[in-house]
Specification:
Blueprint: H1 2-13, H2 19-28, H3 46-75, H4 82-85, H5 97-118, H6 125-144, H7 150-175
Helix pairs in contact: 1-2, 3-5, 5-7, 6-7
Length: 184
């Protein structure tokens, strides 16, 4: 802070002398931050967005796979990719179907935590969740055909709602937290 104040003081002494020193002081002023096209935080960055989408999708499938492994140990369910990408095992009306239903909903709950870690902005949670859901529909359609059962749509819609609402809550809580300052 002392450097900035001395530069501002030097520029005030040479107001009539040179405009170059005055511009430098204005750039270092805490009131008007240096604006550069390379350091703008509001700049559109497609690489960042794509990497966030890929990491969110990858971690979500990893978490879902781990949950299905746990279900295999606890409930002796089969381990197959069909549990992730088809609607064969999702059944709202049976107790056995709720094993996989709970796995999808739990992975959506953990997906909300992933949103808070990866995305970090509450106003982007809806966009990333819907994008995740659309990519999941496309992936399911490629793997085993378009999901045609009501059970699949009910469980995944509930999961997306949980992911959006809890993700926005966690992100807003993170955004509104106090900024730690150094005690000197």
């Amino acid at each position: 802070m002392a450097i900035q104040r001395s530069n501002i003081a030097n520029s005030n002494n040479g107001v009539n002398g040179g405009g170059k020193n005055n511009n430098r002081a204005r750039d270092l002023s805490p009131i008007s931050p240096r604006s550069s096209s390379n350091t703008s935080s509001a700049q559109f960055n497609p690489r960042l967005i794509l990497s966030q989408i890929i990491s969110l999708q990858s971690f979500h499938y990893l978490v879902l796979g781990v949950i299905f492994q746990i279900n295999h140990v606890l409930f002796a369910t089969s381990i197959t990719m069909d549990r992730i990408f088809t609607s064969k095992y999702l059944d709202v009306w049976s107790a056995y179907g709720w094993i996989d239903n709970a796995a999808v909903l739990l992975s959506s709950l953990i997906g909300a935590i992933l949103l808070a870690i990866i995305v970090e902005k509450s106003k982007k949670c809806l966009d990333f969740s819907v994008t995740f859901f659309i990519i999941h529909i496309v992936t399911c359609s490629i793997y085993g055909g378009f999901p045609s059962t009501w059970d699949w749509w009910i469980i995944h819609t509930m999961g997306m709602i949980v992911m959006v609402v809890l993700g926005e809550y966690l992100c807003s809580k993170k955004e509104l937290s106090d900024i730690p300052l150094l005690q000197l």
